[in-house]
């Protein structure tokens, strides 16, 4: 095998591995405060941030996060620079993850998203009740709170710091009318109110009036001041690597199981590439090297899984 072909093969191989691990994934990259609860598959797991680190926790579509008072989380989507910041006392669901984007839901509280420019086939929606915010690349926030004097009354605010945010609200229609927004919010326009927010603009919606159209206004000072005080804190992979603690990983059953899955999948992928190099490309040295690396990763995955089973 020529050096040029070998280099290309290695580049393609590791590009494939990177894509396998980056797409449709999310990672908790920053956590501070008292603690939070992760609900996955009907099971709850509480993370006490005073006694255990949570950075590096891998998240899946369907996961629900509930933050305690004075607790702040930041989530990175896939291999992108998109960060979602979850405020204290917030209930937030990653309904689905797709192509470094996804569909998310705020049931209560405040979130802010700094979204990398997305491709046309990558959705990024945040919803709460009948109001959805969709973006391609921007910095925006979504608040949802219930009125203390009227628990059934829900107030939603969506605001844009940079870029553009399309906000769609479903209006009350006659009984029997069906409506469901698609990824471009292009269907059901007769039953919706839509606005496009620009820099320093916002909308506020009350559930009391389900027929009121959306009207944008200048972003409120309280919103700007709140996020100036509680701005994004995660600064990138270099800082994240400094925070990684192998001892925390080694003694966390959930992290060990996640590590076992990814290590085994990656190892199997590399072993397959090694066999391909040996059989198809007739390169025994590369085939042996890749197979050895892949086998080691599979063995590490087995160790992580066994370790997770024996932890108290």
Automatic annotation (TrEMBL):
Database matches in InterPro entries? FecR
- The signal peptide here is 1-22
> Which controlled-vocabulary keywords does the entry list?
Membrane, Signal, Transmembrane, Transmembrane helix
Q: Is rRNA-binding among this UniProt entry's keywords?
A: no
Please list the residue ranges annotated as the FecR protein domain. 65-166
Looking at the UniProt entry, the stretches that span the membrane are 260-281, 288-306
Q: Identify the domain of life.
A: Bacteria
Name of this protein: FecR protein domain-containing protein
Q: Source species, please?
A: Oceanispirochaeta crateris
């Amino acid at each position: 095998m020529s050096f040029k072909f070998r280099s290309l093969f290695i580049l393609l191989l590791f590009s494939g591995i990177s894509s396998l691990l980056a797409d449709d994934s999310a990672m908790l990259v920053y956590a501070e405060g008292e603690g939070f609860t992760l609900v996955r598959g009907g099971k709850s797991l509480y993370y006490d941030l005073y006694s255990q680190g949570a950075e590096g926790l891998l998240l899946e579509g369907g996961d629900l996060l509930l933050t305690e008072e004075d607790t702040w989380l930041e989530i990175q989507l896939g291999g992108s620079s998109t960060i979602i910041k979850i405020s204290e006392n917030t209930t937030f669901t990653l309904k689905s993850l797709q192509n470094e984007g996804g569909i998310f839901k705020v049931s209560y509280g405040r979130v802010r998203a700094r979204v990398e420019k997305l491709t046309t086939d990558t959705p990024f929606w945040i919803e709460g009740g009948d109001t959805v915010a969709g973006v391609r690349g921007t910095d925006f926030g979504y608040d949802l709170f219930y009125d203390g004097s009227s628990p059934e009354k829900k107030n939603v605010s969506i605001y844009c710091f940079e870029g553009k945010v399309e906000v769609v609200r479903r209006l009350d229609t006659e009984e029997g009318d069906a409506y469901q927004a698609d990824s471009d919010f292009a269907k059901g326009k007769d039953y919706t109110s839509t606005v496009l927010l620009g820099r320093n603009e916002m909308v506020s919606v009350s559930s009391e009036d389900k027929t009121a159209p959306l009207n944008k206004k200048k972003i409120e000072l309280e919103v700007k001041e709140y996020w100036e005080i509680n701005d994004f804190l995660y600064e990138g992979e270099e800082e994240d690597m400094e925070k990684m603690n192998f001892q925390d990983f080694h003694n966390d059953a959930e992290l060990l199981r996640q590590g076992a899955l990814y290590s085994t999948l990656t190892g199997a992928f590399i072993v397959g590439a090694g066999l391909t190099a040996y059989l198809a490309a007739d390169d025994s040295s590369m085939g042996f090297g890749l197979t050895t690396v892949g086998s080691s990763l599979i063995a590490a995955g087995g160790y992580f899984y066994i370790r997770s089973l024996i932890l108290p």
